[in-house]
Amino acid sequence: MNSPVLRNKDFFLLGLQLLITSRKSPGSLRYYGLGLQNGPYTISLFFAETVFNLSKNTWQGHGRRVFDIYIQGHREQKDFDISKEAGGVGIALVKNFDVTVTQNHLEIHLFWAGKGTCCIPEQGDYGPLISAIRVAPRFKVKGSSNKTGMIIGIIAAVGSVCLMILIFGLYMKRRRSKHGEEEEILGMGPKIKTYTYAELKTATADFSRSNLLGEGGFGPVYKGTLSDGTVVAVKQLSVASHHGRSQFITEISTISSVQHWNLVKLHGSCIEGARRLLVYEYLENKSLDQALFGKTDVRLDWPTRFNICLGTAKGLAYLHEESRPRIVHRDVKASNILLDGELCPKISDFGLAKLYDDKRTHMSTRVAGTIGYLAPEYAMRGHLTSKADVFGFGVVCLEIVSGRPNYEEKLDSEQKYLLQWAWSLYESNQILDLIDPSLTSFDEQQATRMIGIALMCVQASPSLRPAMSSIIAMLSGDIEISPVTTKPSYLTDWDFNDTTNTFLFEEPISSETTTMTTNTTTTTTTSFSTAVESMSSPIMSDRISNGSLRDGR
Q1: Rounded to whole angstroms, how far apart are CA atoms 367 and 381?
Q2: Where are the alpha helices (DSSP H) in 66-151?
């Protein structure tokens, strides 16, 4: 790695306008190169401090911008200070890094780790800043005569998405026909492939039960093999769903506009009459819950579990902080995290995603999600922010560590609820007893860090939960984890041993499920144990169906 400093003449020759304009952020900047040819590259990062005052005679001249540089997930430089390394403000600096691209994926991450100034020259000017990025291969690019390298326009991807949305708006204004509904859906977001219903029907063997991969929030998902041999996952939207069309438009427009290594890829869609289907990449190792809870032959050792947790955090950080538009997933759970052939996690099912405005603190919405992963403020009041996803991530993190679901009926009463048990172990300084006993070895430091982060994520107050970018830094060990001192109120305020409702014990109740018929209304009464567990759940809901809390509509 070398860092040439560009003085006045070089600054001008490189293009003054390029280096005096820059993108900055109070916390994190992340760039991606997707579809790159694998091999060695030279990454050139162009910096010039353009915000701080040149004068050292005033207090405003003592601003310091300090951040870390990560490439391909590895920290290449810690506590990087542009003006210090360049020898002053307004002086251009180029930092070169030699990296190897694998899996056709490049990630550059500039992360503010809490150092430097926060109020000089004015509040908010302390995060990472960059003027330009150049990615040049150190090999002959196939199909190209350019021997000096190629420039990858990573930033241009965001602009192209906005342009496509603008073109769609103009297109829809001019076109209104009997196929307007299909045009509306197909026109949203970047261009994706369209499939015929007959093509997908053949690929899935007429949607055979033997090809059923699982049930999503709005319909089943099938494994399919296209005519060219590509294996895909086909999600068949349920036409019985009241909000099927709305749900479909949200999902296809959202997924097609965001791309990240830890998000499941959308290949295309099918719209024919009332039939609407989505075609995703197929991930052979299925979902995280199946791997964790022994429903597949996949066995997860400790390094794999840690990487799954870190990868999931990166995917959520992208949705919350870097994608355009910003996205709240709303249903973060183990079954919505899929694993590819290398056990890399990919977040799936954006069907419940809610887009939100950066300027709004929350959205009031009808609750949609899964019991056990719902943040209290969202479950009880429909108060939705990205911190609702953080809560779900905390639960998933504990499941990854313990190898058990967040609720397990067969366990002793003090261990049935994973959150309750984790806090009990934490308070008695036995937190490592939470580790999955099937693991032959684990990293004690990483395990302690993961559990500490999870307990921060499941705090009752959203303001006490960290942002996903901070969670990544804590998992990586770049910043310290604040000690957790507050047990969530939804656990402390709920007495699981309440015996005041003595009327429940006055008359024996059969352990079997019985059906009572009163005039024209048929009501199902579950077993006594189920009734007690339902009442003692720390997260209340309006409607329960097949283990999932739906929209109540």
Answers
A1: 8
A2: 82-86
Q: Which domains are seen in the chain, by residue range? A: 5-154 (2.60.120), 180-281 (3.30.200.20), 300-492 (1.10.510.10), 502-536 (no CATH)
**Helical (H) or strand (E) element with 426:** helix 418-427
Task: Give the pTM.
Answer: 0.62
Distance CA 168, CA 409 (A): 50
Residue type, 101: V
How far is the C-alpha of 336 from the C-alpha of 349, rounded, in Å? Answer: 6
Cα–Cα dist 31/258, whole Å = 13
∠ CA(70), CA(446), CA(391), 5° rounding? 85
DSSP 481: P
The alpha-helical segments, DSSP class H, found in 260-347 are 288-292, 302-317
* The pair of three-digit structure tokens given for residue 330, joined into one six-digit string: 């709303």
Active site residue 331: yes
Amino acid in the structure at residue 32 = Y
In order, the DSSP letters of 452-466 are HHHHHHT-SSGGGSP
Q: Supply the DSSP symbol for 379.
A: H
In 104-211 the beta strands, taken as DSSP E runs, fall at: 105-111, 129-130, 132-137, 193-194
The tokens for 341 are 């052939």
140: tokens are 């002959």
Token match 């097949």: residue?
546
Q: What is the mean pLDDT of each run of 10 residues along the chain (553 residues)?
A: 51 51 79 85 88 62 83 89 84 90 87 77 75 88 51 54 59 47 45 85 95 80 94 80 56 73 88 84 93 88 96 94 83 92 90 47 57 82 88 96 92 88 92 94 95 95 93 92 81 59 43 36 34 35 33 34
**437 close to 402: Cβ distance less than 8 angstroms:** no
Angle at which helices 302-317 and 468-476 cross, to 10°: 150
Report helix angle 302-317 to 444-457, nearest 10: 40
Least Cα distance to 539 among 425, 456, 417, 430 occurs for: 417
Residue length, the chain? Answer: 553
* 180, two tokens: 């307007």
Cβ atoms 219, 234 nearer than 8 A: no
Q: What are the CA-CA distances from residue 220 to residues 108, 199, 454 (Å)? A: 36, 17, 31
Place of tokens 């009990």: 424
The residue annotated as part of the active site, out of 68, 125, 289, 331, is 331
- Rounded CA separation 125/62 (Å): 12
